[in-house]
Structure prediction request, 290 residues.
Amino acid sequence: MSDKSDKKDLELIEKYLVLQEAGVLDGLIEKVTEELPDPQEPEAPEKDPVSAPPADTADYVVFDHVRKVYHVGEVDIEALADATFSVAKGELAIVVGESGAGKTTLLNILGGMDTLTSGKVLLDGREISSLNSRELTRYRRYDIGFVFQFYNLVQNLTALENVSLATQICSDPLDPAETLKAVGLGDRMYNFPGQLSGGEQQRVAIARALAKNPKLLLCDEPTGALDYNTGKAILQLLQDQAHKSGATVIIITHNKAITPMGDRVISVRSGRVQDVKINTEPVPVSEIEW
Prediction:
């Protein structure tokens, strides 16, 4: 197989994984195929997403006066209005707000799945808000790990194979088996999703994201489909990833009760950042009740 064919296959896998994680794969495979460049056409040079100078750790993630407007027919809907905040490297940040507050739009922009109308977004010193479509694909592939409410695992692949699939599109992945062991699934890695509980499937999804060795882990309502005890276990795992493993984690949630676990709490309302609070002594998940 030619290098260009290999590259096309990798891009298909990457888009498949992002769409799987976003829960919108069905009906889009044909569209994804059509979007890929013709292998006969010369391709524009790409920038390396990891080549930017390192940012100050206090400003690892930066949202700078971000505005997002969706045009629906003749109606303009402002999903984000002058949203400004920052997150330090290695922090666990909680973005909290009611349904429709703009939380998911914020996550989609930060994750490179949507573009902004105005403002700037930076990760580790790199302005991602200025990236073109191909650069955003590479940004999602190398820099971002996604965890969503629904696990979106490939049902005919084992837990290990699901995680391994994600590592095939990364430049510096972690070992899939070791990552599964780290999330407590060392004895379940050869099971298929249908043989795992909801909490175990979400752990596989988290391992899949972590195995990419991303700069940033984005979690959208990661416990929304789980019961209370399983949800607490998943939140503890995410808190440990930040506090013990040094990962930078952002959790999107409507549940205000879990905000004490975060190093930083970003409150969003009607598309605006209402408040940013620093927790100097985050509460262990075991002490949180809701």
